[in-house]
């Protein structure tokens, strides 16, 4: 008997290879920034530890804090620059959008096969992403029509939902689908993302290892890790839901 009825997909790194593009864009922002200020050099480990999967400005603030730098938050409409957290984030947004335009975006074939399989099996699906670029990325990848429910960085800002690693955006997506969180699968490639899944009463947290490491994904809350979603089929929906008594059963609480 099927125990899981919904699959909540992260976008960047899960449906599309855009986490790697974000990663390179952050490096283009922060490598010269660190050099110019004599800060410890920016590395890809910084991306995975401080930025990956989080809302744009939270990523900036967390990374800067790791270098002992504190800037005023500013506002989302700050012009791209260096004076505020938001200005830095918006500068990176210019960089990443240029890369998206130049490189194009195609979904992972294995992810589309898995999406087809769970949809054909009757599961409801949603996209849950921190990115404010979600609508454009879904459109470029030809996936817009596949998801009636999208909880992205724009929705989170509008509805004042805490970003990943808090579970709130995933909980909102399950609610919009009308499916109890316990009957929903969270699919994530980022540490902050599997943490978000583990911080809510979800039925299963599936990790996709795109470079952060399977062990790290498990340590941060994944129940199971695959290298590519093409390894899976709709049988995942028959996975027994995770045990009810988990530290993270406090729905809506921050991780
Ligand atoms: O700046 P955006 O597009 O709103 O995205 C915020 C974050 O979105 C996440 O999906 C990515 O993993 C991060 O790398 C990115 O920083």
Tell me the helix content.
Answer: 40-55%
First-residue to last-residue Cα separation: 32 Å
How many strand elements? Answer: 6
Radius of gyration over C-alpha positions, nearest whole angstrom = 18 Å
Number of domains: 2
Q: Counting H and I runs of at least 4 residues, what is the number of helices? A: 10
Would you identify the CATH H-level superfamily of the largest domain?
Answer: HAD superfamily/HAD-like
Helix/strand class: alpha/beta
Q: Rough shape?
A: globular
CATH architecture of the largest domain: 3-Layer(aba) Sandwich
Structure description:
The protein has 255 residues and is α/β, with parallel strands linked by helices. The protein has two domains: 6-17 and 105-238, Rossmann fold; 19-103, DNA polymerase, domain 1 (Orthogonal Bundle). Helices cover 42% and strands 10% of the residues. It contains ten helices and six strands, in the order βαααααβαβααβαβαβ. It has helices spanning 18-37, 44-51, 56-66, 85-103, 109-120, 134-140, 153-159, 168-177, 191-198, 214-219; strands at 6-9, 124-128, 149-151, 184-188, 204-208, 224-226. A six-stranded parallel sheet has the order 3-2-1-4-5-6. The longest helix is centred in the N-terminal third of the chain and has 20 residues, at 18-37. The chain is globular and about 55 Å long. InterPro entries: B-phosphoglucomutase_hydrolase (IPR010976), Beta-PGM-like (IPR051600), HAD-like_sf (IPR036412), HAD-SF_hydro_IA (IPR006439), HAD_sf (IPR023214), PGP-like_dom2 (IPR023198).
């Amino acid at each position: 008997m099927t125990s899981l009825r919904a699959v909540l997909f992260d976008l960047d790194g899960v449906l599309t290879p855009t986490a790697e593009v974000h990663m390179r864009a952050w490096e283009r922002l922060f490598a010269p920034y660190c050099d110019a200020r004599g800060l410890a050099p920016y590395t890809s480990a910084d991306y995975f530890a401080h930025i990956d999967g989080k809302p744009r400005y939270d990523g900036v603030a967390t990374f800067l804090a790791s270098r002992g730098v504190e800037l005023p938050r500013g506002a989302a409409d700050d012009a791209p620059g260096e004076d505020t957290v938001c200005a830095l984030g918006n500068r990176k947004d210019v960089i990443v959008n240029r890369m998206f335009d130049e490189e194009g975006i195609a979904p992972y074939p294995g992810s589309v096969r898995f999406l087809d399989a769970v949809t054909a099996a009757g599961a409801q699906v949603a996209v849950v992403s921190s990115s404010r670029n979600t609508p454009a990325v879904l459109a470029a990848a030809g996936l817009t029509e596949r998801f009636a429910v999208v909880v992205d960085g724009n929705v989170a800002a509008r509805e004042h939902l805490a970003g990943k690693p808090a579970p709130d955006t995933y909980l909102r997506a399950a609610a919009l689908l009308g499916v109890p969180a316990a009957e929903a699968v969270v699919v994530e490639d980022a540490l902050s993302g599997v943490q978000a899944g583990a911080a809510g009463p979800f039925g299963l947290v599936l990790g996709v290892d795109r470079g952060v490491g399977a062990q790290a994904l498990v340590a941060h809350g994944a129940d199971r890790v695959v290298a590519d979603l093409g390894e899976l089929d709709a049988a995942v929906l028959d996975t027994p839901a995770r045990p009810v008594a988990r530290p993270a059963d406090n729905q809506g609480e921050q991780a």
